[in-house]
Structure formats: C-alpha cells, structure tokens
Amino acid sequence: MPAITCIVNGTSTTMDVAPGELLADVLRERLGLIGVKIGCGEGECGACTVLVDGLAVLSCIYPAAKADGRQIVTIEGLQDDRHLHLIQQAFVDRSAAQCGYCTPGMILAAKALLDLTPNPTREEILTGISGNICRCTGYYQIVEAIALAAERSREGGM
Amino acid sequence: MSEVIGRSVERADIATKVTGRRKYPQDFSMEGQLYAKVVWAEHPRARVVQVDTSVAKAVPGVVDVLTAEDVPVNEYGIQTCDQPVLVAAGGMTYWTGDRVAVVVAETPAAAEQGRRCVRVVYDVLEPVADAREAIRDQVLVHQGKGTNLIQHLKIHRGDAAAAFARADAVVESLYETPCVEHAFLQPEACLGYIDRDGRMTLIVAAQWPADDLRQLAHLLDVSQEQVRELVPAIGGSFGGREDMSLQPLVAICVHKLRCPVKMVWTREESIRGHGKRHAFFIRYKTGCNRDGTLLAIEAECVSDAGAYESTSTVVLANAVSFMTGPYFCPVCWVDGYAVYTNNAPGMAMRGFGASQAAVTYELQMDKMARALGMDPVEFRLKNILVEGSERSTGNRMPAGTAARECLVAAAGAAGWKETEGKWIRPDAGRSSGPHKRRGIGVACAYKNVGYSFGFDDKSTARVHLRLGDKGDIASAVIHTAAIEVGQGVSTVLAQIAAQALGTAVEKVHVAFTDTATSPDAGSCSASRLTYMSGNAVYRACLEAVARHDAILRDETGELSVEAQYTFRGRSYRPTTDWDPISGACDPHISYGFGAQVALVEVDVETGEVQVIGLWAANNVGKAINPAALFGQSAGGVHMGLGYALSEEIVHREARLRTRRFSEYYVPTALDMPQQFVDIQVECPDPTGPYGATGVGEVPLLPTAPAILNAIADATGVYVNVLPATPERVWRRMYPSASIRGRPGLAVV
Amino acid sequence: MPEEASVWDVFVTAASVADALHQLAGLQGEGRIIAGGTDLVLQAQRGLCPSRAMVDITRIPELDRIETRDGFVVIGATVTHARIAGSPTICSQAPLLAQACGSIGGPQIRNVGTLVGNVVNALPAADGAIALFALGAEVEVADLDESRWLPIAELYEGVGMCAIDPCAQMVTALRFRPLAAHLGSDFQRLARRRALVLPIVNVGAVVGVYNGCFTDARIAVGPVAPTPFRASEAEQLLIGQPVSDELIAQAAVAAASSARPRPSLLRGSPEYRTEMVEVLVRRALGNASAQAVAA
Questions:
Q1: What are the structural domains of chain A?
Q2: C-alpha distance from B20 to closest chain A C-alpha (Å)
Q3: DSSP-based three-state secondary structure for B674
C-alpha cells in the first residue's frame, strides 16, 4: 500500500506501513516513541492513548494506515526542550504517578479533556479519564493534578 | 525531626515517568536481538505425549524452537523446585500456564508463525478444579506427592467446645474469597543477553532479583555470579512478580543461542502465565459473652494453591496467623489447609493471606455486634489488641500496636461519636433515590511487616559518598536492590539517607537495581522495604557519617566514603516458627494496622453498590513522605474496592474463563468513592527507621469488609461470597422467588 | 498487541460511497468496510473476521454529517459516538441516543467508534442500537445498484449476524424522526462498573403522552435475546391507556416476559437478567413519561 505521511509530534513523517499494522507498534518500533505504552492490546486500559488530530485515541487498536494526513501527538511531544508541559508539571506537583505505566496515556487523555473543556467539573475530569485504568494510585492524585493544571492554565500558565 | 522526614519531596523518578522517558523492560532493544514466544500448555491436566517442532523450525525466520531438552536443569520454584521450565515429552501439564516450548525467531511475526506450527500431542486428563474436592485426595494433582494437601497449619488454643457452650451468642458462616488478578499495567517483558563479563543478564521487572539469581543459577547449572538482573522500572507488581515469570524462558534461550533474546507477553499471556491470589473457602464460628467479650473463635480454611506450591505455605501461614483478627480471644482454633488443584498457582498478592482472613473476621465481628445489639465500633474496641495483648499465636503485641488508634481515627473521621465511654454510629444519611438505601460499615485489619516464622529476614544497603573540596558531601548514592514498583521506596530511602547524612535530599540518589552492584535488599513484599531497607540505609549512613567525620578529623584528604550495612530483623525481634501442636509462636517482626469506614448506597432493585465515602486510617509509624503514603492508601482502597465488588478470575474445569482486561473489572475513575479521607496515624514503631513502619498492604485489607458490612447495614444481608456483584447482592436480598408478584419491596 | 504483525493484507481508503462500493466489488468478496475499526481490529486479531482487505470510509465527507433533512434526523456512517453524545441536535431531538452513545466504553473508544459500525456489528449488547430501536430508526443500505432504507430491526439476523453483505454492501446513514414535543425518552443501563464495560441489560424507551394517556410507546431491550428487540406486547398494553405507575409496572412485567437470555459468565444468570429487564423498563418508562408530560 502507499506510504503514509503524518505529523508526529510536530514533525512530518513519511513511512511505509503494512495494511494491518497498528499505530502503537509503528510509533514504538519504527519511531522509537516508547512513551506509547502497551497495557492490554485490546483497547481496554488506555495506556496506549495518543492524540490524533487532538482527540484521545487508543493506538493499540488504531490501524496506522488511518493516521495518514493526521497530527499525532505522543507524550514525547508534550514538553518543549526545557520545560515540562503544564499538565506534566501538575502531575509532578501532585505526586500523581506511582509505577508510571499508565501515566503517558493518562496525561494525554487529560490534555484532550482540557483542550475541549478548559474548566472541567470533577465529574467531567473523572469521565475524561474513565478510559484510563490505573492500578496504583486510586486516581485521586491524578484528578487533583488535572484540576491543578486547569487552574494554572486559566491563570495564564503555558 | 527536621525537614526531610515528613516532607512530600518530589518522587525520585516522576519526572521521567511524566515525560515517558522512563523505560520499562519492553522498551529496551538490542542490536541483533531475536524474539521469543511461548507455546503454552493447551490443557490444565494432560500428559505431553509428543512435541513436534519440525514444522515450526522450518518457518522462515525461525531460528530455533527450544524444548525441555534444552534446559540444563529443568526445575525451579520460589520455595520448592516443583515447576519445570518447559514440560517435557512424557511429562505432565498442571495448569494452562505451563510452557511446553519456546520459539525464537528474527521477527515477532515469524515467532508467532512458528508458534502456531508447533505440534503438541496430549493425553488429556480430567482436571482437579475445586480445592474442596481436591482435599479428599480422590484424584491426585501431583502423583508423586501422594496427597493434594501441601500443608496443614493450625492454632489449637483452649477448649473450644466448652467456650462455645458458655457463649451467649454464636455466629457461624461460610465464606468464599475469589481468585483475583494483580492486573499490573505493564505486561511481563524481558530482554536477555550475555554481558561483557560473560554473565547471563536479564532486563526484567522482578520483585526479588537476588532470589531469581538463585533459581536461575540452579536451572542453568551455573553459579549465581554468572547471572545478573537489571530492573529499570516496573509497571506495578502487587506480588505478581515475586515468582519468576518469563525469566527462565529467556535465560534458556540466551544460554543456548548466545545472542540477545527479547520476550514480551500480551495481556492475555500475562493473565494466563502468572499465578493469582489464593481463593479461600472459610468456615468461621465466633462465640461471645453478652457483654461483648469474645470467648472463642473456630475457623477452618482451605486455600486453592493451584498447580504448584509457589509461596502457598506462607500465604496459608499468614492466613492462619491473622485469621482471628486484631482482637484478643482466649480460645482460638484455626485449621488451615493449602491444597493443589489444576487451577492457576496461588502466589503472592498484596495482602498475602491476611486479606482473605480480614474479609472473614470482620464480617464475623460485624455479625456478632449485630447479634448482641452493640455498636460495631464499640464491640471491636472492647476486644481490640493493644501493646502487651496476647494474640492468637500466644505472643504479646509489641510497641507500635496501633489497632485501636486506627479504628478510633477512621470511625471518628466518619462520624462516630464517643459519649460517656459509648460509641454511637452516625446516621448514614438520606439516599439519593426511591430505590436506594444507604449503609455504613467499618472494618479493621492487621498484617505482618517483614518475613515471619523464623525466617532470617535481612536487607543490605551500601552508601557511597562523594566529597567536595571542602570535605562536604557533594553527592550520595545508595546501592540496594530495594525494588521500586511505584510505591515510592526509592524516594523514601533517599529521604532517610538525607536525614541520616544531614544533607539535602537533592544530593541523594538511589541507584537502579543491578544485581552486579546492588546488594540484596530482600523481596519487595510483606510491606517490608521501608522498614527493612530503611533500617539498612539508615545504619549504613550512620556508619558513613562516622567515617566521614574521621576523614575530616584526621584530614586524610580522602574524597569518598563507602559504608555497607546488613540489617537483620532478628536483631530487633527474633521470630519463631509454629509449634506443631498448638500453633504457638512469635511469628512476626513487626505489624501494620489499618481501619476503614465505608458509606455505600445500594440500589435495592438491581443490587448495584456504589461506595460514596471511604475513610481510611493506616498506621504509618512515621510519615516519611505523606503524598506517597496517600498514594498507597488510595491505591489500596482501589484494589480493595475491586476485590469487594467487581474483580473475579473465573476458572471452569481449571481453564481460565476470564482471560482479558475486557473480562476482568478493575475499578475505573468513575467507580471510586467521591469522598475519600486518608488518615496517616503516627504510632511509631520504635524499631523502624525514624519510627516508620510498612504500609504496602494494610491499606487494602479493611476495604472489602468495610464495604460488605456497609451493604449489610443498607440491606440487612451479608454477602459472604466475593465479589459482591449486583447479582450476588440481589440474590442475597431475594433468595427465593422473583420481585414479580411480591407486594412491593420487602427489604429492611 | 496482536498475535501477528499484520491482520490484513490490504487497506485502502475510499473517497466517496461509489468509490467504496467499487473497491469492494473489485475485491470480490475479500474486502469489507471499516470505519473506526474498534470492533473490527479485535475481531481480526482473534481470527473472527474473514476479510483480509479493508476499505476505509472515514475520509468520505458526506458520511460525516448529523443533519435534519425532510423531517428526519440523519446520521452518517462515520459519525462517532462522541459526536453524537455531544451533538446539540441529538441532545434536543433524541436525547436517549445521546445518553446511549455517551455510555459506551470510554472517551477514547467514543472518539473513534461509530454508531453505524456498532449497528453493523450486530451484537445485542449495543447501546446505540437499543436507542435506535426505540427511535424506530431506519438504515440506508447501499450497493452498486441502489440504496434503500430498511427498518433497523431487519438488519439483525442473529448474534453478530448483520443482514447486509459486508463484502458488497455498506450502510451509509441512519435516520429517525426527531422526538416531537409530546414524546419523552429515557435510556437505562445496568453494568458491572461505570465505564469500559458492556451492559448486563440496557433499555431504551420513547413514549408519547397526550391528555394523560399514552399515545405512543416504543420499548427496546437488550442483550437478553439474540438480537435487540422491541417489547411489542408491553407497548400494546400502554397505548391508549392512562399513564399510571401500575400500568407501567404491568408493561415492565410484559417486557421481561419476552426476554430470553442465555446464561452468561460476565452478564449473569437468565433469571437475574430477566428481572432486571423489568426493573429497567419500569424505570425507563417512568422517566420517559415524566419527560413527555413535562414537555
């Protein structure tokens, strides 16, 4: 099949992908973006969440071919060279990661949520991360981190 | 105490985790690596007649297919060498997680193709699927053992018949706690290779690397110095990585092929391939005076140990030891049996026998309080263990016993009031709808900290100081294989070290675990690392400080200091093993305590349970990092919530029927209690580093019983079989006919 | 991750409906339509999807619309659950469909999975489909010769069996009449946790009330039979009768009596699920009636 071209973390990338290849594998194996985590391979845990044209998507069940022409953002694309993204910093400040395996997907789900709903209620935050399983934290510190990020963003953070 | 201890310093590894830079075993790759895939046993109980690898070997890209013949010494196991690395032709499979062959290929796709081409011929036998049947020994799981009984442990203290005869109230019930899955987010993965020094090296998530080396050395028939494990990061553990999983498989591939080999399990393989929490079947009888004093406890429990022994005897020991709860009871008769079946092996999982016990003793205590018409907190306080109390095994509870403090803290926070020495429960509040009922429930629990029953539990730490020009500490590196699974131990140890060294925590770094350079810290389990490794780090640092002082005093000009210390639990409290008749012993180095209150709302038409509020009080001894402790507490509640309401690994005929995350219901963010209050009780353990004690497991133990007791408060019925799914709750409420035809709801 | 590196041999993107159908024809029975792929990818990995070639329709502009046209609300084949759940049109014209689509999976699944894809998958545990049954929806089926509208029930032949030929036909749109002022609706779902889970039972109800009597009643139930179904006996009990709790309770009992659930490890026993049909139908009718009366 023809090569696909997509913008991955701001960089235009052209690749040959196999028809049934999945986006998570392409990102991890071809592009070395090992921040994309595989937790279950069936779209049931959210660890593989990436942003496709700004929407949170499960890359482990998303055919890479569908990414043609789209903007993909992984956790690696969130920060600039010197600073953590506001959401990442909030996770640090609220101790919102333990084993860290769900964290990249969780942060991207949070970004998708905040981009759409900059001033979310607690219920909206919970729904926004309801597709991301965490086995370590019980989610409370994660919710606080997202609320903190929203607050800082409104106050004119990055 | 100054600023480092007690401060929620930034987690040592969190910056790498939020940026996705932190690498887990599957994120490592090496030039020229091959890919390995497992051929799993098709049947839980079968004789392997033949393993034909010829077709698989001919698949383009397949380099080799390893079978039992390729394993130098085909046995391993954490306590007993009863597991084969690969089941040999002529050998038996004992569960569907047994491995028959490993296909190694140039690409994952070729390995997969090769795997499908391995032809195994089985002589299929009827599996032993139920522990309660297995105990009768009609069909033996392991022929050579002569019995399915792995161990019978008991506490026989006092005259039970006489005590029950005297009792004013007796409660007896049957309980079933399920097989559950660790469900850590990171599936098993391992990259193995021969390092520059010729060592078999495995990059893997492991809870006890030193013990892995012992087992690997045995199965490879090499010395332990020739094996090495690197633990870069672990995506959750909860006991599920204490036994080896894929290390033996990767090791034999690397050993034979002498090149890097990578194996990554899918989630289905993960669920299939590692053991589970022991399911327990428990009959429990409690007798009491009318004034609320416990008179006798009699409990009989059977644990499903599954295919292999793993740590079943220790889980059983803990279950028996903790079965009577954190209460004084003069007469205790506890009989515990661990039994083989062809189900998944029961292995370590957070709680380790104490969790199953907590469900049963706390429902019993609740039922007894109800029978006596006593407030549930009042009744528990009347019997609760304090320092100096005699527990079930006849030993006295040590300083730092905080059961009472935790119960009072949790209950008080949830609204219990003490008036004139009497505790009165709060009102559960108005329900949110016509078909909903609210209920409030309480539970307490306790657990050992450190290994027990005479085990020489120890932990070694080495500290290396680099000194600046002025002789000040420029940096400190701690070397210890105290495994960071996400609980925050790296951070806590850095804080302890900083405090002991008198230096800034930013200057202290805990090195990655590399068995070549990290001394054995013992297992990341039994809630022991803060206590055991914390003590080792503390003592090593004190020694380093002494040497540093000497350098300065003598003006030797040396620029580095090194000190190592092995902390032994028996130096503080030697533990003893069971008396074979009475069960009397001094089993545990130290104890952790917790209590929780749950506020639930039950939909009495559907049986759905929503936990609205949860108050948790855990004794932390001394809060070294409060934010990390909050995380442990909340995470424990999450796991306990799942245990109570939604998580269940189902075997039918010893085959897994719940094989994927889509079939196994871990709580999502929407399932957590809206109100969660965490209370960090500080009742110091005088033997812990700065008074701290272990909190890895206790946060999970009271959750399920608190929720179940709250369900009983709301509905009038106790669900004795977990998980309390909507249907199970519904069936307890409506045991006979359907709702249809009944004149309205007949519910308390 | 998948058990093999590539579950399909061909993946092509269609520029139009005609293009999609021509590509399908060219693949001579080996191809099928893919939209979000959230079900298809898993089916392919598990060896349950016989097709080795996929024709992606998500780039076809005319399929990506929610619009009102000729008195119908029309939803194109590539519209996702997330868009439906958040659509002002759907929230005002067919609120139960927004409820249903909003309860599927989690946000990520809803961002990619499509309602039409869910229908074509033809599993009875399909929240969106339950709402569509209650809305009396129709489905536009297109092949190279023609396109025509079918009542949604005609698409369901059995568990996982859709009446269309996935190698030669495609569903291009759904449509239903927006709920008029005197109609109320509700969607009920019972499940073992609050996200990322298939339902034990779900119910969609649309009722009309005028002068205190039921004028319309559509009750859809699943998954308690091989396909979603309308509880027509229960509907008939209501129509023309004065609204009352007792009547609603009777209708709920009647609805439950048409349930034929098989034992399910994850969903529970037939007895429990049948009882829950009664509970959920009763609640859905109660809420829908209240909404209709208040309108």
A1: 4-77 (3.10.20.30), 86-154 (1.10.150.120)
A2: 4
A3: coil
> What residues of chain A have any CB closer than 8 angstroms to a CB in chain C?
1, 18-22, 24-25, 38, 41-44, 46, 49, 55-58, 60-63, 65-66, 68, 109, 112-113, 127-128, 130-133
Determine the 3-state secondary structure of B188 from DSSP. coil
Mean pLDDT of C6-31: 93
Query: Is C290 within the bounds of a domain?
Result: yes
Same domain, B405 and B284: yes
In this structure, the number of other CB atoms found within 10 A of the CB of residue B713 comes to 25
Range of the structural domain that residue B460 is part of: 14-21+453-571
Backbone φ and ψ of C264, nearest 5°: -135, 130
User: Chains with ≥3 Cβ pairs under 8 A against C?
Assistant: A, B
Helix (H) and strand (E) counts in chain A: 5, 5
Is B370 a domain residue?
Answer: yes
| CATH assignment at residue C247 | 3.30.390.50
Q: Which pair of tokens denotes residue B724? A: 């309390």
Q: Could you tell me the two tokens for B744?
A: 């309205």
Of B22, B266, B670, the CB nearest to A100: B22
- Answer yes or no: is C1 within a domain: no
Q: Do C11 and A63 touch (CB under 8 A)?
A: yes
Rg (CA), chain B: 26
What residues in A contact C108, CB-CB < 8 Å?
43, 46, 49, 56-58, 109, 131
Banded model confidence at residue C123, pLDDT cuts 50, 70, 90: confident
Owning domain of residue C66: 61-176
Chain B residues with CB under 8 Å of A47 CB are 185
Q: Does the global pTM surpass 0.90?
A: yes
CB atoms C13 and A65 under 8 Å = yes
State the smallest CA–CA distance between residue C46 and chain B in angstroms: 12
Average pLDDT value for residue range C75-103: 97
The minimal CB distance from A107 to the residues B18, B182, B233 is found for B18
In a domain, C5, yes or no: no
Find where tokens 């996935």 sit.
C166
Nearest by CB: A130 against B11, B14, B669: B669
For chain B, what is the mean pLDDT?
96
For residue B748, the model assigns a pLDDT of: 27
Does the structure show a pLDDT above 50 at B741?
no
Nearest to B217 by CA among B203, B200, B232, B192: B200
pLDDT tens digits, one per residue of B440-474: 999 999 999 999 999 999 999 999 999 998 889 99
- What ipTM describes this predicted complex? 0.98
- What span, in angstroms and rounded, lies between the C-alpha atoms of B365 and B362? 5
Same-domain check for residues B504 and B635: no
Q: Cα–Cα distance between B321 and B155 in angstroms, integer?
A: 8
**Per-residue tens of pLDDT for chain A, all 158 residues:** 889 999 999 999 999 999 989 999 999 999 999 999 999 999 999 999 999 999 999 999 999 999 999 999 999 999 887 899 999 999 999 999 999 999 999 999 999 999 999 999 999 999 999 999 999 999 999 999 999 999 999 998 54
CATH classification of the domain holding C17: 3.30.43.10
